[in-house]
Amino acid sequence: MILIITPENREKYLGYLEEMHRIRYEVFVERCGWTNLENPFRMDIDQFDKPWVTYYLKLAPDGSILAGLRTFPTSKPYMLEELYYPLFVDKFNNKNLPHDDNVWEMSRYFVVDPDYRTETGHAAKMELYVAVFEHALSKGVTSLCAVGETYIMARALRLGWKLQPLSVPFIHKEVDFDGEMMAINLEVSAEMVAATRKGWGLMHDVLPSTAVAARPSGTDGAEVALMRDIVSEHPDAASQLRELISELCSECPERRVEAEKYLDAWIARAAVEGHMLPGQRKKTQPVVN
Amino acid sequence: MSVKNPLALFEILEKSLTNAQTIEDVNQLFIAFAKPLGVEFFACACVQGSYSDPERSRMLGYNDTDWMRHYMDNEFWRDDPIFNYGKIAKRSFTFTEALEEFSLNPNSRRVMLDAEKFGIKEGFAIPLDSSDDHTALFSIAGPYFPKERGQLHLAAIWAHDRALQLLEETMPLEKIRLTPRELEALQLSSEGFTPDEIADHMNVSLGTVRQHLKSAKFKSKTRTPIQLGAILGRKQLVH
Fold first, then answer.
1. Do the domain assignments include residue A210?
2. What is the pLDDT of residues B140-174, one digit of tens each?
3. Given Cys at both, which of A108, A167, B117, B156 links B138, Cβ 3.0 to 4.6 Å?
4. Where are the beta strands (DSSP E) in chain A?
5. What average pLDDT does chain A have?
6. Domain check: are A178 and A35 in the same one?
7. Do the domain assignments include residue A39?
8. What mean pLDDT value characterizes chain B?
9. Per CB distance under 8 Å, which residues of A are interface residues toward B?
């Protein structure tokens, strides 16, 4: 079952997003060793986790998150152009870099347990990608771009995916990462969705038959990102803010309301220091259910 | 100011590949693309999965050359460090990188020394993981390290895929009428059994096994067992 969290329903599923950010931290920082993402809140939230993002989460029957990725239109600032292109300018044909509401970027793909298989014997990523393609198609998206490992491109072509390289392969080497990558644009069509399903032998619906129950939370990614910025300048505030997040996630409504007051005070302080971006945080109402 | 498109050559080749109708077309297109970049040798062969025995797995390349005859006659694939590193690599690698990873025995040293004598000194190889049962290795080389490695890399991925498509498209299933014994021999061959082992298993002579495999190739009008395997594997006659 794939839960799709869109800008329209994100308030309802903030609890899932919070768990996703924690799992991403576990996967990318603790397992993959991407130390540049380390932060005291132990949540992976980057500059592209914005309110306009759509998240796709593969859920286990008990509601735990098994895999995920995100998409958003390339009319917004996106990873491929903002992060990769400046590092590998001579590897890209920059004329082909998209800026289009109907061309979305896929990024932050993660799988908790690569050996997990559904009852039908499918890897979590298979249901996830089928959900992404079908959702994108339903929204009028014409193509998806991404940076991926070069090694998997032969397999993508075999599935019948129409790939347009946006770059030649490049070696992305950092202290804790060393991979041969390339940027691609993947055409989305009914034919490619059908070919993918056929290639993977995946014929069942991947979306839930009934709406997934709401899972609210006291925190939003933008708030945690803001707090992370504060901590980078005020390391002594880390323990207080970590405790604040814990209180915001408390099961006790009164404690959450109290924590919200402290949060507002921190946000006001951050604004004075110039941290808060206009429109970055929507003023939230305390959750008291 | 005009900025060089680092994909320009590949984009031309990619369009041409869609018009290729035969494996030989793909070969010729790749040669025309790669030769000006200093490529004097290339080969693409299956290294894992069905028909991973190199003697029978070649898909693309300069097959009819002195070097390839020398290579096959001496069964160099057994000790070729590039071929063996390609079985485990998850990214492209230069010959130098492969040699650093492998401790060379006298036989593998001989492969590399002989290659140099045939003018193959510098190059790189690309593992192509097309499915759970097919990984190919595309090797590209020359007397000097070829130019435009990135575009050659993309060209290898797309040429290999086009070759697989053609292998699948060129033979309608209904025209391949194999006998049960031919299919059995083919099945065992696809699982990596040698003709000797297949003969033992089927309780027939080596000559009969060879005849079964030859007949299967003849009926399907394929040149190599991997071509036949690609067709029959897709049609799920061989699992």
1. no
2. 999 999 999 999 999 999 999 998 888 777 655 55
3. B156
4. 2-5, 54-59, 65-73, 103-111, 143-149, 163-165, 170-174, 177-187
5. 86
6. yes
7. yes
8. 83
9. 90-95, 149-155, 157-158, 165, 167-170, 179-180, 182
0.90 surpassed by pTM: no
pLDDT at A215: 87
Q: What angle do CA A193, A199, A204 make, to 5 degrees?
A: 65
Q: Which domain holds residue A102?
A: 2-200
Chain B hits for A169, CB-CB cut-off 8 Å, are: 92, 150, 153-154
Q: Spell out the long-range contacts of A132-135 with Cβ–Cβ below 8 A and sequence spacing 24 or more.
A: A132/A56, A132/A69, A132/A71, A132/A106, A133/A188, A133/A192, A133/A193, A133/A196, A134/A193, A134/A206, A134/A207, A135/A4, A135/A54, A135/A56
Indicate the domain borders of chain B. Answer: 8-169, 173-234
Q: Do A158 and B92 touch (CB under 8 A)?
A: no
Option in B5, B6, B160 nearest A154 (CB): B160
Q: What is the domain count for chain A? A: 2
Supply φ then ψ for residue A76, to 5 degrees. Answer: -95, 165
B8-169 with B173-234: one CATH topology?
no
pLDDT at A283: 39
| Domain at B173-234: CATH architecture | Orthogonal Bundle (1.10)
Residues of chain B found within 8 Å of residue A185, distances taken between Cβ atoms: none
Cβ contact, residue pair A150, B160, below 8 Å: no
Q: Do B153 and A168 touch (CB under 8 A)?
A: yes
Residue B103: left if φ>0, alpha if ψ -120 to 50, beta else—which one?
beta
User: What whole-number distance in Å separates Cα of residue A241 and Cα of residue A233?
Assistant: 13
Six token digits for residue A232: 């980078």
The pLDDT tens digits of the residues spanning A154-163 come to 999 999 999 9
Measure CB to CB from residue A155 to each of B90, B131, B158 and give the nearest one: B131
Sequence-separated (6 or more) residues with CB below 8 Å from residue B35: none
On whether both A175 and A235 belong to a single domain, the answer is no
